[in-house]
């Protein structure tokens, strides 16, 4: 007699695709001012340690088959290492950032000059306050966007027009999670992870409707900056402190790759903050996706 195979939920096979990333070496990183609750200018920064962590991040991304370009960082712009804030690039179209705080204002034109020297189909500076991938997460057939701390709904409207993609506005309510990429991570075109308490009740309803199967992170995962990770569809590069999130990713067939960015966290950033992706546009909505 043959015993029936035990019923076991199987995680889908995840497929990595090679990505193009843009990073900026933290040669001038320091915490000289405080524009988010993580920053304390009285806490010393160990720049060699920040540089060493960043070099590991770069090497790990390259070792997993991704291309990494670097933007020269400029003196006097200590937050320039957080390249995710430099703009949004999808399918060769780029919108460069306009920063909320005067301390970071010059990063917008600095990154814009770098974009202008690339082969892009279009490039424009944002006319609304817009900190790039900090608040805008490309999710295949839509863009998820944070609102509440750094940008407004008019920035969402500008992004929707520029990229001709629907933008889903999500209100952030906890100042520790001041950018969308501190509270939500896109894992692939249909899968996300997020920390519900960082969002308003209305935003949580939207997320539950659009992503009923999302991975929910807990407070420790979020405070460890685990959601500030980067996914290539299979590997997820994220902080090792996000232990429950790491277990949940594994259970869903992803391969978590721990990358310690604790020195950069003194500036309020983690893995994702340091990585801008030049996204290839994928236009076909996945089957059965909500509008
Ligand atoms: N100190 C920077 C700021 O407050 C950190 C930016 C982090 N970047 C990010 N993509 N969340 O603007």
Summarize the structure.
The protein is of the alpha/beta class. It has helices spanning 47-63, 107-116, 153-163, 201-210, 219-223, 243-251; strands spanning 20-23, 67-70, 87-90, 93-96, 122-125, 136-138, 143-147, 167-171, 184-188, 191-194, 215-216, 230-231, 235-238, 255-258, 276-279. It has one domain: L-arginine/glycine Amidinotransferase, Chain A (5-stranded Propeller).
Per-chain topology:
Elements: E1 20-23, H1 47-63, E2 67-70, E3 87-90, E4 93-96, H2 107-116, E5 122-125, E6 136-138, E7 143-147, H3 153-163, E8 167-171, E9 184-188, E10 191-194, H4 201-210, E11 215-216, H5 219-223, E12 230-231, E13 235-238, H6 243-251, E14 255-258, E15 276-279
Parallel strand pairs: 1-2, 3-15, 4-5, 7-8, 10-11, 13-14
Antiparallel strand pairs: 1-15, 3-4, 6-7, 9-10, 12-13
The structure holds arginine.
The site of arginine (ARG) has 16 residues, from loops.
InterPro entries: DDAH-like
Keywords: Hydrolase
Protein name: Amidinotransferase
What does this protein look like?
With 291 residues, this protein is α/β, with parallel strands linked by helices. It has one domain (20-279): L-arginine/glycine Amidinotransferase, Chain A. 21% of the residues lie in helices and 20% in strands. It is built from 6 helices and 15 strands. It has helices spanning 47-63, 107-116, 153-163, 201-210, 219-223, 243-251; strands at 20-23, 67-70, 87-90, 93-96, 122-125, 136-138, 143-147, 167-171, 184-188, 191-194, 215-216, 230-231, 235-238, 255-258, 276-279. It has a 6-stranded mixed sheet with strand order 2-1-15-3-4-5, sandwiched between helices. Strands 6-7-8 form a 3-stranded mixed sheet, sandwiched between helices. It has a 3-stranded mixed sheet with strand order 9-10-11, with helices on one face. Strand 13, helix 6 (243-251) and strand 14 form a beta-alpha-beta unit. The longest helix has 17 residues, at 47-63. The chain is globular. The N and C termini lie far apart (49 Å). Mean pLDDT is 94; it is low at 284-291. The site of arginine has 16 residues, from loops. Arginine binds at residues 35-36, 39, 79, 82, 84-85, 104, 134, 179, 181-182, 267-269, 273. It comes from Nocardia rhizosphaerihabitans. Belongs to the DDAH family. This is Amidinotransferase.
